[in-house]
Design goal:
With 61 residues, this protein is mostly helical. It has a domain of 26 residues. The protein is built from 2 helices and no strands.
Length: 61
């Protein structure tokens, strides 16, 4: 009796130890707002300024 209880406990705990972990959680994603939005707007304004300046140089030639 004692041997069978020990064997059953050994099988149950072995199953728990060798079990695969669960699925990982969702990754933390950075929202696109605040500084990143400001950086994108500044980049767009800079590109617009460069393109306008290039057109003015072409008009002067």
């Amino acid at each position: 009796m004692r041997c069978s209880v020990l064997l059953i406990n050994l099988l149950i705990f072995t199953e728990l130890v060798l079990a695969q972990p669960g699925l990982p959680g969702d990754p933390a994603q950075a929202p696109i707002d605040g500084g990143l939005g400001l950086l994108a707007a500044a980049g767009g304004a800079y590109a617009y300024k460069k393109l306008r300046g290039k057109n003015k140089e072409d008009d002067l030639k």
